[in-house]
Design a protein that fits this description.
This is DNA polymerase III delta N-terminal domain-containing protein. With about 220 residues, this protein is of the alpha/beta class. It has a five-stranded parallel beta sheet, with helices on one face. The N and C termini lie far apart (about 50 Å).
Length: about 220
């Protein structure tokens, strides 16, 4: 059996992957960059199979073209294979993986956070700070806000690169309207700000979240 895990909701994806691993006596992560040897590894018998069990092999961050190149060989595997993609695969791509079990993990965004995300994407500082204040009064976790800002910025980058087809059409439409407000170099700099904030939170050295919002919305 081949499992395809795809989507941007990594916490949910990782939890389901752990649940899957727990069903196997043995699991192995393929760490070689080249995939041509994976077929031989999958077809070779394992101690688990000799004992009547099945082994799980996990493949992460593989090039999709390389996956499709070897996919047919892998379908005859003596071991089960879980292939992990951190993006949502498109329908034509999924069609090339027929016979596998497809598991989609899309982001689940609470409705009350969209106004804040929209304001930051539109670089409207006053509105963004107002929405942030509303969310903080409601007890929202700033670590969650950091992750959702990163999710929204990834969407902006996809739209700017003409790759927004995997996004929700409504979300993609909103992002296209504000994408021009982000000049070349703005999004990488914004990512750096988010990474720095994430590190500060992990070290319990976070500054007021308003500082981050002001940096992201300056133009």
């Amino acid at each position: 059996m081949i499992f395809i895990f795809h989507g941007e909701n990594q916490p949910a994806l990782r939890q389901d992957l752990l649940n899957l691993k727990s069903r196997y006596q043995n699991s192995h992560t393929w760490e070689e960059e080249e995939l041509h040897g994976l077929g031989d590894f999958l077809l070779a018998p394992s101690f688990s199979s000799l004992g009547g069990g099945t082994e799980l092999v996990i493949l992460e961050n593989a090039n999709f073209g390389e996956v499709t190149r070897f996919f047919k060989v892998w379908t005859d595997s003596a071991k089960d294979l879980a292939i992990i993609f951190t993006r949502i695969l498109k329908k034509p791509e999924l069609a090339k993986l027929s016979g596998s079990k497809i598991l989609l993990f899309s982001e689940e965004v609470p409705q009350n956070i969209f106004a804040f995300l929209d304001a930051v994407a539109a670089r409207q500082k006053g509105r963004a700070l107002g929405e942030l204040g509303r969310l903080k009064k409601g007890g929202i976790d700033t670590d969650y806000l950091t992750k959702m800002l990163a999710w929204n910025l990834r969407g902006l980058a996809q739209v700017q690169d003409g790759e927004g087809k995997s996004l929700n059409p409504y979300v993609a439409s909103k992002l296209r309207r504000v994408a021009a407000l982000w000049e070349e170099g703005d999004l990488p700099q914004a990512y750096e700000e988010l990474v720095a904030e994430d590190q500060r939170q992990k070290k319990s050295r976070a500054v007021p979240f308003e500082f981050l919002v002001k940096k992201l919305t300056r133009s």
